[in-house]
Amino acid sequence: RKGAAEQQQQQQQQRRRTGTMSGTERNTKILALFDVDGTLTVARKAITPEMDAFMGKLREKIVVGVVGGSDLVKQREQLGENVTDVYDYSFSENGLVGYKDGKLFHTQSFKDYLGEDKLKEFINFVLKYLADVDIPVKRGTFVEYRQGMLNISPIGRACSREERDDFEAFDKDAKVREAMVAALDKEFGDRFNLKFSIGGQISFDVFPKGWDKTYCLQFVEKDGYDEIHFFGDKTYDGGNDFEIFSDPRTIGHTVTSWEETMRICQELFLS
Predict the structure, then answer these.
(1) Contact 126, 143 (CB under 8 A)
(2) How confident is the model over 74-109, as pLDDT tens digits?
(3) pTM for this structure?
(4) Residue 66 burial (CB < 10 Å; 0-12/13-18/19+)?
(5) Is 37 a catalytic residue?
(6) Nearest to 91 by CA among 70, 110, 118, 113
(7) Catalytic position from the list 37, 171, 212, 233
(8) CA angle 149, 155, 158 (to 5 degrees)
(9) Which residue among the candidates 35, 71, 171, 205 is catalytic per the annotation?
(10) Sign of torsion over alpha carbons 147, 149, 154, 155
């Protein structure tokens, strides 16, 4: 019995990888792209079994992809080790690392774009600025280098879940990230052609202009979809979903939780 159950589970996973779990016709002309934190998961937490199963069900009906600011390691932690197989598209770091149908097809590097001298000048400025920022708690990993961007956190990414939640509440009034972004934009925005995007609870991203989440659209628009939907929670001006949400190539949907994402997708694609 156990052997049969395991075989059935493996077959189900294989069908999800290929998007052929049901006998109903799949509309390959509709693509839905999803942010991760706050859209498919609670921020920085793993996807729930309920939402994971729902996404598999959705992929029976339409083409599905994820586009997140975090690197592929973090995307796998949250959505599963097989994220590049069970979604048609997996874009980490806003699409600077791109997978389609389980195969890596694109990579781009922030370091190669900016050059070591400019990168060093920028990081030095950030560290000097952070030294003078007065906030209740500071931990570690204030600057995280990723392939396609820098992630800067005034409290430090090594903070605990409780400290993360506390900083988010504190920053709503103190606007530490907002002030820091304004200072960096004034110093480097035009000179280094950089853009800044506040996302998540404790940090903001730095990347070349045009390297926001719209970066991934250059690849999917070539595949001839009639509709490209995008679901995200930080869709306001300055949020890291704003550009792709408001891009004329997408139909944007603002959500506040994975439960709301599920409800809207149910109404749009599964009713």
Answers:
(1) yes
(2) 999 999 999 999 999 999 989 999 999 999 999 999
(3) 0.73
(4) buried
(5) yes
(6) 70
(7) 37
(8) 75
(9) 35
(10) negative
